[in-house]
Specification:
The protein is α+β, with helices and mostly antiparallel strands. It contains 23 helices and 23 strands. Strands 1, 2, 3, 4, 5, 6, 7, 8 and 9 form a 9-stranded antiparallel β-sheet that branches. It has an 8-stranded mixed β-sheet with strand order 10-11-23-16-12-13-14-15.
């Protein structure tokens, strides 16, 4: 324990300055204690001590301070905390509360990848640390449990905790409604989560905001967000990725444009699916949000100029263009960060904190692995929204002149409706776009978007034609709405029709999947492909799918383990399969059996008549899959090779299958080649010819596949293969994945579990 305290003192005095706010110092030290206690305390030992009133160590006390916030009853929580601090034993009721809200949660808490708690640095340079900020907006009606952690500043804590939950909520709502002051109107009470901000202040549009939360790693931020959702429900979250302004990062404008488009498309696509299932739900809310614009041409130009100035060191915080009204990333300098810091504020995820975490990790990993965002530069070419899109569509789709005036007038009149809709929510529509121009989203020339450049020519042309046709359908649907509308008496129902049409467009073209592939570095011709090894294959980072985290024997890297049964029902799984391979171990027979999934197909090398090459579907119970992420080029190469080999084996017995695989002598009988039955169990004919290539001899099948012949004392031998050896031989030969010599399924499975050579990105249990 002595060494832990020495380490703690060293850490405190050597801690880097990473604050977003002036009160950062105490919070950062508290975070150090909490992080240390995560790895040095025993929840079982703590429960034993508090049940008999034994004194807790310093780190155990810090652990309790962090976990106690899960007890949702303020008075009881504070009483328990006071008893623990004064070394008094808890009574049976208090122990029951402790067990219900702390012990069970702690023992059952899903294991996280420990690498997720590691610090990150721009370009891997430890002088340029990356830190993570968080802010949230909540409402008392949507997040009523927040009164278990905060009290009105004007009410003393001892009074607040004696009230019932209903009384606290009623008073909090009244104080919030009548508030006219600036600054915090609610303050944190004892026992609330250490990472929560000290106070909440009222926003003009009616929500309560908390900010200034700083995390030195993503694991702590993830823990906090999970805790917040459990205790208070989901709020609107915004994240920050922050680093020194001494780093000259290229591509920040393209990244902002890319992420904004991706976020809007993904939201509209999912909105439309929900609308189809529930016509009462109105999609496209991001398009009419009072103060979150889709990206405009003005935003785009300003971002580009801003990037140039930032990287030439020309901007001071007071001169910053922040585009804080966009539904996407906004680059910030100085405020709200400290002097010398810059970063992105990720504004597009709202209540979906899982996606916020994923995007935050991808951005930080890109900065760490490459030192820049250069591969996003090309997205500056994408045409954003401006007033010209409507007239351009008239020209593109040859809309008759008599219709054009009515359509323009229709959109112009929607401005009034949109302003009234915002006013009813106590807001005004902000941003540089006219209100109705937000509804031009589908009119953008998406067929020319740079994300399509990375598709094969034939696929790209098909998609371009589909997008253009869908845009044309959009404008024709608008014409139908205009024809039936009373143009001088439009209502929110007309706005909703446009929201539906924009969402329908996004749903029909399904562009978000291409953005996703580019973002993950999985599309062809991407020169810089970051390795997101810490948060492997992030599309599957879903607690519903995950069973556990397994640490390979020979590795300190935690590998996520997923449920195959649940995975097959996940809509993202098809994308996951397309970009990975999977070595499948089946615990059958004496030695087990190995098959391989390459992309969406499965190959099983067995006795010739049983060799399989089919579409991958569900697996039988007890199968374990070891998944490795590869790029599309490698997957195509392997698919072709495995397909050719298995066809050749089935048809010509070349390569030759033998479950016990060894060198078997070749002999000629009636002008046909066979393997000696004393050295091989394979009695089938080798349907090929022996040919010389340089000094080496090969047996060549009519398919063109050839196997090298081993010559010993003028005799010819052939290396036979079993289900396992053929798979690992091909992986090594074709793409350099060297797992070492694997002679049987059961021995290979032991090798894979130890992570001796190549560590899997995930393990799937079927």
């Amino acid at each position: 324990m002595k060494y832990i305290y020495i380490f703690l003192l060293f850490t405190i005095f050597s801690a880097p300055k990473i604050s977003l706010a002036d009160n950062m110092c105490s919070r950062y030290f508290s975070k150090i204690y909490t992080t240390l206690s995560r790895y040095t305390v025993s929840p079982i030992s703590i429960e034993r001590k508090i049940s008999n009133g034994s004194k807790l160590s310093f780190l155990e006390n810090k652990w309790i301070e962090n976990e106690i916030s899960y007890i949702p009853y303020p008075k009881k929580r504070i009483n328990i905390l006071n008893k623990i601090e004064n070394n008094k034993a808890l009574n049976s009721e208090e122990l029951s509360l402790y067990h219900t809200f702390i012990k069970v949660r702690t023992l059952n808490k899903k294991l996280r990848n420990k690498n997720f708690y590691k610090e990150m640095f721009v370009g891997g340079n430890k002088n340029f640390k990356i830190t993570f900020g968080l802010e949230f907006e909540l409402s008392l009606s949507r997040n009523p449990n927040i009164v278990n952690a905060y009290r009105p500043k004007i009410i003393p804590e001892h009074e607040w905790i004696t009230m019932s939950f209903e009384q606290r909520l009623k008073i909090a709502k009244k104080i919030h409604k009548e508030n006219t002051e600036l600054g915090d109107i609610f303050v944190k009470i004892k026992g609330a989560n250490n990472s929560l901000p000290e106070g909440l202040f009222a926003e003009p549009h009616g929500t309560l905001e908390g900010n200034g939360m700083i995390f030195s790693n993503l694991g702590d931020m993830n823990d906090f967000l999970d805790s917040f959702a459990i205790n208070f429900g989901r709020a609107d979250f915004q994240g920050h990725v922050v680093h020194s302004n001494k780093v000259r990062v290229q591509g920040i404008s393209g990244y902002a444009l890319f992420e904004s488009d991706y976020g809007q498309l993904r939201a509209l696509e999912s909105n439309y699916i929900r609308f189809e299932n529930d016509p009462m739900y109105i999609p496209g809310k991001t398009l009419v949000h009072p103060y979150l614009n889709p990206i405009s041409e003005n935003n785009k130009t300003a971002f580009q100029l801003y990037e140039i100035d930032v990287n030439e060191g020309l901007l001071e915080p007071s001169e910053v263009f922040s585009a804080r009204t966009v539904n996407g990333p906004s680059f910030r300098i100085g405020t709200p960060y400290k002097e010398g810091l810059v970063g992105f504020e990720l504004r597009q995820f709202h209540k979906n904190y899982e996606e916020l975490l994923k995007a935050t990790h991808i951005l930080a990993s890109e900065l760490q692995n490459t030192g820049n965002l250069s591969r996003f530069k090309k997205f500056n070419k994408a045409k954003a929204i401006d007033h010209t899109l409507l007239k351009k569509s008239f020209y593109d789709f040859e809309i008759e002149v008599q219709h054009q005036d009515n359509i323009e007038y229709f959109f112009f009149k929607l401005d009034e409706v949109l302003k009234n809709m915002a006013a009813k929510k106590g807001s005004t529509i902000q941003g540089d776009l006219a209100p109705h121009e937000r509804l031009f989203f589908a009119l953008r020339p998406w067929e020319d978007h740079p994300v399509l450049e990375f598709l094969e020519a034939s696929a790209r042309n098909l998609l371009k034609n589909k997008i253009k046709k869908t845009r044309q359908n959009f404008i024709e649907e608008v014409m139908k709405i205009v024809e039936k509308a009373d143009l001088d008496n439009l209502s929110h129902l007309d706005v909703q029709k446009m929201q539906v049409l924009n969402s329908k467009f996004a749903h029909e073209v399904q562009l978000s999947s291409y953005f996703s592939q580019y973002r993950e570095g999985l599309m062809k011709n991407i020169v810089e492909r970051p390795d997101f090894r810490i948060h492997t294959l992030p599309l599957l980072e879903d607690s519903v799918l995950r069973l556990e985290t397994y640490q390979l024997n020979k590795s300190k890297i935690d590998v996520p383990v997923y449920s195959g049964k649940k995975l097959l029902k996940n809509p993202q799984y098809e994308f996951y399969k397309q970009n990975s391979i999977e070595v499948l171990f089946k615990d059958i027979g004496k030695f087990g059996h190995t098959e391989i999934r390459i992309g969406t197909r499965i190959y099983g090398f067995n006795d010739v008549k049983y060799t399989s090459n089919k579409v991958f579907s569900k697996q039988s119970k007890g199968v374990t899959g070891y998944v490795y992420r590869l790029n599309s080029e490698q997957i195509e190469k392997l698919s072709l090779e495995f397909s050719n080999i298995y066809k050749s084996s089935r048809k010509y017995n070349i390569p030759a299958f033998d479950a016990f695989s060894g060198e078997a002598e070749i002999f000629l009988q009636s002008k046909k080649y066979y393997l000696n039955n004393e050295t091989s169990h394979n009695q089938k004919q080798l349907k090929g010819t022996i040919e010389s290539f340089g000094k080496e001899k090969y047996i060549v099948a009519p398919s063109g596949y050839k196997e090298k012949i081993i010559q010993k004392n003028n005799n010819f031998f052939l290396q036979t293969h079993n289900c396992t050896s053929i798979i690992f031989d091909i992986l090594n030969r074709e793409i350099g994945m060297d797992f070492g010599a694997q002679t049987s399924a059961i021995s290979s499975q032991k090798s894979l579990m130890k992570g001796k050579r190549i560590i899997p990105d995930s393990i799937i249990e079927y």
